[in-house]
């Protein structure tokens, strides 16, 4: 994949000042989505459309788009938890009679419940996203600065700490197919292992792993998932959902 280089015009000295002015002047342009709104039960068959409507609120201005790209505020939960949940609902609960109940923040040890219209519990769900959080954060900064970012690696930069980080221009970004498959398989396994390490917190809970494999064929996706290993005494069910496609895989 090729990304055009961009010109770097900010310096280490004025970057913190510019960012501070940017935030103070433009926070009023950021849409407000409350935890109460996110916690309102939604029909599972409508969940994906609902989540997309939340995301569209951040596509009105450049400031709100940058806010979303960097997963600030409530957008972090929308991207990391509600997008995978909405995809899961579309694949598994696309009929009438089911509701998605999301728990924003830390109200529960799990993230969501699927309930019937009459209130009966169907399943509890804990969600994780198979990403390199550090790399993803730097990529988001590059997207805001330049409009482009490498897809498969961490953008190069100078300086220590986010406030004084000086990103370099984006360049060509390629990755070998086997390396990409291995990298994604490792991310999925790490995200599962991290949650399994606290399995005592999730009795009778389904683990949903969100993964972005938009550019993969079904054969490549199968190669990625064939590397996955379950631990004993784990979650009641384990699923992997493609947040950029139509696939849902049952791993346990």
pLDDT under 50 segments (min length 5)? Answer: 1-25
Oligomer state of the chains in this structure = single chain
In spatial order, strands of the major sheet run: 1-2-3-4-7-8-9
Number of helices: 8
- Residues in β-strands, percent: 15-25%
Element pattern in H and E: HHEHHHEEEHEEHEHEE
Mean pLDDT: 81
How many individual β-strands?
9
Main β-sheet description: 7 strands, mixed
Q: Indicate the structural class.
A: alpha+beta
| Cα end-to-end separation | 34 Å
- Radius of gyration (Å): 19 Å
Helix proportion: 25-40%
Shape: globular
Map the helices and strands.
Elements lengths: L14 H12 L8 H5 L2 E2 L3 H10 L5 H8 L5 H18 L5 E5 L9 E5 L4 E9 L3 H14 L10 E2 L7 E2 L9 H20 L8 E7 L6 H9 L10 E6 L5 E3 L2
Parallel strand pairs: 4-7, 7-8
Antiparallel strand pairs: 1-2, 2-3, 3-4, 5-6, 8-9
Explain the overall architecture.
By secondary structure, the protein is α+β, with helices and mostly antiparallel strands. It has a domain of 175 residues. It contains eight helices and nine strands. The strands form two sheets. It has a seven-stranded mixed sheet with strand order 1-2-3-4-7-8-9, sandwiched between helices.
